[in-house]
């Protein structure tokens, strides 16, 4: 028997809605795509591995309903695949350019893709790989898609998948790539930092969306301990990590469908439509770490991230987004 297993009970339909899910070819992302598809949405799987994404599309079409949603209340949606490598700013800009050109609207963006406890390395853009894949890449993608979402509002939502592991994190402003950290701890510290950054980004973006009356709500969440492809790096935690999590931790570990429930809740639930900037677990609002609630850290991280991405913060958010859009031409 599993101890934590909340289910999104909302029967909301997504007919006519266009949704984008990063990393939707497997795990939580794939199950989120399946759910949105069963609710009638056009679901865009934005993935690095296009072939895997195409296989996922075939599976979703063949099995459109999860065990939580066995019967349709309306028509099924539509599925499409867009290439996206979050470890490449060039790929992110190309994906955003295609989405803005080819899609008439974007109503829901789920920033789901990520890696965990990956061996230390820098991307071609010069950033620690977990920082860029889990946070910087989603930050840039979100900003590039925001004008389209603003024109699609109201009722739009941005969902950032974080982790309970953020409680161990802090933002290393003076060593963002962790080059000065102990080599053995780098992969852990990098993951914790990236997941804390996800929540702080949610907090600051929600504030900006409120100030501009954008009609866009923003959410962050912990999906639970989930058995997905991320488990391939469990042995990086300690020798035998895979076996420990597979057998000793089994009662506490969710499958992908169970792990997707809080993501789905934040994206579709009617009650959540009245909330923004909050952190969720088990389909409920919960309290993140003290650092994740700190307005000053959120502000500092926003400005620092803009500097890393060579963007100039502006009190006029509309003007700021125009400068971000120039990234599409780089």
Supply the helix-strand structural class.
alpha/beta
Percentage of β-strand residues: 5-15%
Helix-strand string: EHEHEHEHEHEHHHEEHH
- Oligomeric form: single chain
Query: How many distinct beta strands?
Result: 8
Tell me roughly what share of residues is in helical segments. Answer: 40-55%
Count of discrete alpha- or pi-helical segments spanning 4 or more residues: 10
The radius of gyration computed from the alpha-carbon positions, rounded to a whole number of angstroms, is: 19 Å
Q: Would you give an account of this structure?
A:
The chain is 40% helix and 12% strand. It has an 8-stranded mixed sheet, sandwiched between helices. The chain is globular and about 55 Å long. It contains 10 helices and 8 strands. It has 330 residues and is α/β, with parallel strands linked by helices.
SSE blueprint:
Layout: E1 18-22, H1 27-38, E2 42-47, H2 50-62, E3 78-83, H3 89-102, E4 108-111, H4 129-152, E5 156-161, H5 186-211, E6 216-222, H6 241-248, H7 256-259, H8 261-268, E7 278-281, E8 284-286, H9 295-308, H10 317-325
Parallel strand pairs: 1-2, 1-4, 2-3, 4-5, 5-6, 6-7
Antiparallel strand pairs: 7-8
Helix pairs in contact: 3-4, 4-5, 5-9
Which short descriptors sum up this protein?
10 helices; globular; 8-stranded mixed β-sheet; alpha/beta; single chain; 330 residues
What would you say about this model in short?
40% of the residues lie in helices and 12% in strands. The protein has ten helices and eight strands.
């Amino acid at each position: 028997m599993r101890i934590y297993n909340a289910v999104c009970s909302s029967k909301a339909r997504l007919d006519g809605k266009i949704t984008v899910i990063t990393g939707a070819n497997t795990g939580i992302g794939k199950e989120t795509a399946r759910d949105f598809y069963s609710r009638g949405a056009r679901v865009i799987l934005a993935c690095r591995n296009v072939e895997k994404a195409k296989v996922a599309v075939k599976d979703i079409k063949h099995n459109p309903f999860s065990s939580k949603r066995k019967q349709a209340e309306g028509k099924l949606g539509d599925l499409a695949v867009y290439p996206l490598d979050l470890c490449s700013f060039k790929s992110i800009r190309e994906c955003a350019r295609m989405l803005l050109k080819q899609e008439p609207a974007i109503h829901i963006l789920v920033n789901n893709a990520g890696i965990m406890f990956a061996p230390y390395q820098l991307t071609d853009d010069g950033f620690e790989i977990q920082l860029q894949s889990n946070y910087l890449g989603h930050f840039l993608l979100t900003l590039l898609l925001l004008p389209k979402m603003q024109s699609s509002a109201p009722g739009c939502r941005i969902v950032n998948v974080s982790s309970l592991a953020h409680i161990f994190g802090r933002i290393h402003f003076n060593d963002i790539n962790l080059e000065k950290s102990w080599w053995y701890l780098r992969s852990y510290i990098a993951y914790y930092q990236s997941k804390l950054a996800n929540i702080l980004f949610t907090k600051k973006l929600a504030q900006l969306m409120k100030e501009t009356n954008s009609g866009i709500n923003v959410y962050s969440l912990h999906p639970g301990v989930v058995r997905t492809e991320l488990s391939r790096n469990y042995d990086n935690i300690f020798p035998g990590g895979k076996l420990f999590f597979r057998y000793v931790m089994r009662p506490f570990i969710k499958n992908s469908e169970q792990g997707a429930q809080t993501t789905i809740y934040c994206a579709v639930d009617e009650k959540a439509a009245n909330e923004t900037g909050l952190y969720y677990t088990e389909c409920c609002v919960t309290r993140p770490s003290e650092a994740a609630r700190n307005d000053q850290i959120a502000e500092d991280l926003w400005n620092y991230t803009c500097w890393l991405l060579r963007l100039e913060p502006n009190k006029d958010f509309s003007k700021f987004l125009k400068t971000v859009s120039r990234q599409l031409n780089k």
